[in-house]
Amino acid sequence: MQEKINTPRRRVLAAAGAAAAWAGMSTVARADSTEPAAQSNPQPVSDVKPLPDYAKWKDANSLIVHSANTIETQRGAVGSSVITPLNRLFIRNNVSPPPAGITDNPDAWQINIEGVRKPHTFTLAQLKDMGLQALPMVLQCSGNGRAYFPHKPGGTQWTVGAAGCVIFTGVPIATLVEALGGVQDGMVYMTGTGGEEIPAGLDPNSVRVERSVPLEAMKDAILAWEVNGEPLPLAHGGPLRLIVPGYTGVNNVKYVKQLAFTKAQSPASIQQNSYRFSAVGEKGGPQHESIWEMPPKSWITSPSSPDTSLKAGPVVIGGVAMGGMDSPSKIEVSIDGGKSWQEARFVGPDLGKYAWRQFAFTADLKPGRYNLASRTTNAAGQTQPAERAENNRGYNNNSWQDHMVEINVTS
Amino acid sequence: MQEKINTPRRRVLAAAGAAAAWAGMSTVARADSTEPAAQSNPQPVSDVKPLPDYAKWKDANSLIVHSANTIETQRGAVGSSVITPLNRLFIRNNVSPPPAGITDNPDAWQINIEGVRKPHTFTLAQLKDMGLQALPMVLQCSGNGRAYFPHKPGGTQWTVGAAGCVIFTGVPIATLVEALGGVQDGMVYMTGTGGEEIPAGLDPNSVRVERSVPLEAMKDAILAWEVNGEPLPLAHGGPLRLIVPGYTGVNNVKYVKQLAFTKAQSPASIQQNSYRFSAVGEKGGPQHESIWEMPPKSWITSPSSPDTSLKAGPVVIGGVAMGGMDSPSKIEVSIDGGKSWQEARFVGPDLGKYAWRQFAFTADLKPGRYNLASRTTNAAGQTQPAERAENNRGYNNNSWQDHMVEINVTS
After folding, report:
1. Is A229 in contact with B83 (CB distance < 8 Å)?
2. Do B88 and A229 touch (CB under 8 A)?
3. Number of other CB atoms surrounding residue A386 within 10 Å
4. What homologous superfamily does CATH list for B100-290?
5. Residue A349 is nearest to which of B79, B230, B352, comparing CB atoms?
6. pLDDT computed for residue B50 by the predictor
7. Whether B229 and A79 lie within 8 Å, measured CB to CB
8. Residue A177 exposure: Cα atoms within 13 Å on the Cβ side
């Protein structure tokens, strides 16, 4: 949508301060690095920074542009309709996207399937006649919430907005594999290779976007050519993207040109060294756990600003809750910084275990300051923890403490 | 989304013929009439006609612009992700929309609630703190499918695209009514009044958009300020719209400025004379049934063109099925014009009884001509009929015969 978007009523007071913060930001846009530099100020900003050409169609007023390849949704811009509009969905590219021309004729896009009994190359047109699945799911960057780590890890300082809930549509990978005679014996990983161009003179493994996930992730995975009812745009990995529901964003390989079942994980640096769970101060490597499955997490989206000022009376506190690999089954809200909790209610449709749910809680607030927090539990009994799991690069932050919103209620 | 949209592979051959049809069309844009003139050629066109200013943000390549106030989605542009993207959603205004400025400060919009024990005027900001519901539902114009009536009823010649499945978000009307002491005794209708400007010198009842629905429709109805995660745009009734799920589009009053519980139906012409189920040749009036609840209906969206030419082999036939007031529970597909039927499968999430579901059926087609049809049954046991219910103005066409797609399969 290109209509004028209005500043939400609750964000007006915060705008002046945020503008000042923006002016003081020394953003370093390292478009072709898998490890963007840490920014000097992790605070979200509501001012408008230009969108890159491939994402010009997005609603700049709902986004925070960190760099040409890292753009997040403002906390209050995610809406209350479960599905995140595409023009507000975050973008995170590890390297610059391929030329926009690859989406001019999407049906001609080709993908090799390897590591099956009958390896085969399909065009996207052929995939469209092999099966159809529509998969609602949370797409979330591994580093979402990184800004809250006190040791200031390198990388984009995402707050809550490197996440959205969308519906990807494509062909089930299990269907393709069955048609190709099944996975070859001994293969334990599913490895997707992105179609980004590798600059001349560089070691391909240093920049190639190639990710391996455990073979079991194939079960619900699809090759998607559509998102939220539209042909998959370049900004989100079109014409074809590997979608592995429940797994962090990087595992959902964009512009996917090869899907291979492999005995070992990809030798690419993005697999071997990046996206590893290592202790603070320790560089990641193959000996560390890979960042794959997402844990349960929730956050409040309305009121949305740390500096929100509200009038006393009933206030609807809203947010989103995801369960990771299992449905979110319970959501609690605290208005006293986590000292006490009350159960909130889920709002709107349940789109399945990989989607998030909206929640709402009505509180009758007297004048004063409040720390609003939310905490979800999934169907497997996992509860969102108070503390983040410390790690060097600031991955998978699902601490409810870190995601609190402070509000000021006036008479 | 503003990216270049590509002509779907299956529509390429149809484009040339459609362009010729477009050139020959004598479209009469009667922007301020509740009864647009019949067009001389009901055929859908895939060429681009300029969008009106208030809908400039829409994707022109996915739409058929009948007039400034009547714009439908192309059959093949609805996608396979259940939710219809806003930039592809149809538009039907009975009169021209109010000035765009009314969405500049949506929270200031006011609505009177009348016919309750404690009548009250709310601002939209106040409504937002009274409750929250997200409601997936089919929004469909009463005249969708009118183009297939052989007697050529007056009005826009909609084919299948005056319908979409979206998620509206707002406050339950039942919650408001409870807060205002309940409905006054003796009230049997819920009447919404639109905020359109009435041109000077006209009898307000001749143009006012004011619709009454039975009181029981209040149960699941909401006042919505958001659709698909975005603030409700002017083109779809923003800042505030009355949403009555399961009822045809006109009952979902845009720019709603008053909601009244009443003893009688609105005296407006749009209630008394329009949207009435009268015999062919007979003008509608209060003695005829009002167009309220929608019947079950389905149609094929892919392949999408009557002139589609496909290669022999497996073809995924896809479409949408809605149940009206109850969930669609079964979907059948025929490739021989309805002589024989096979059960298809629903694809993707079930968003609740008012939403539609996507379906898919894989057919292995040899060279030849095929008439593809779909037929749905809802949870109440109502099956989509072969024949339309004839009526003067061409409302509620849910005939499966009328919605067939003819395809040509080559070797």
Report:
1. yes
2. yes
3. 12
4. Oxidoreductase, molybdopterin-binding domain (3.90.420.10)
5. B352
6. 92
7. yes
8. 21
Which of A3, A83, A131 comes nearest B83 by C-beta?
A83
Interface test with B, best of A2, A3, A12 (most B CBs within 10 A): A3
Residue B350: Cβ-neighbour burial (10 angstroms; 0-12, 13-18, 19+)? middle
Long-range contacts, A341-346 (Cβ 8 Å, 24+): A341/A375, A344/A317, A344/A374, A346/A321
Q: How far apart are CA B196 and CA B208, in angstroms?
A: 7
CA distance A399 to A389: 8
Residue A132 to residue B360, Cβ atoms within 8 A: yes
Q: Compare CB distances from A82 to B85, B167, B348 and report the shortest one's residue.
A: B167
Contact check, Cβ <8 Å, A82/B229: yes
Give contacts of B 195-234 with A, CB under 8 A: 226-231, 233-234
Cβ–Cβ contact A331 with B under 8 A: no
* Token duo for residue A156: 């984009």
Q: Residue A134 carries which side chain, given as an amino acid letter?
A: A
Q: Is the pLDDT of residue B76 over 50?
A: yes
What fold, for A297-410? Immunoglobulin-like (2.60.40)
Domain boundaries defined on chain B: 12-82, 100-290, 297-410
Report the pLDDT value the prediction gives residue A47, as an integer from 0 to 100: 54
- The pLDDT, as a whole number, for residue B309 is 77
Share of chain B above pLDDT 70, in %: 88
- Which of B61, B80, B301 is the best residue to mutate to test the A interface, defined by the most A CB atoms within 10 Å of its own CB? B80
Distance CA A251, CA A209 (A): 9
Are B363 and B340 in contact by the 8 Å Cβ rule? The answer is no
B85 touches chain A (CB under 8 A): yes
**pLDDT, tens digit, 9 for 90 and up, residues A305-356:** 766 778 999 999 999 999 999 999 999 999 999 999 999 999 999 999 999 9
Q: Which amino acid is at B341?
A: W
Which residues, at least 6 apart from A396, have a Cβ–Cβ distance to it below 8 Å?
A142, A145, A248, A277, A291, A294, A295, A389
pLDDT of residue A305: 79
The whole-number pLDDT of residue B49 equals: 73
Q: Which of B57, B129, B133 sits opposite A2 (nearest CB)?
A: B57
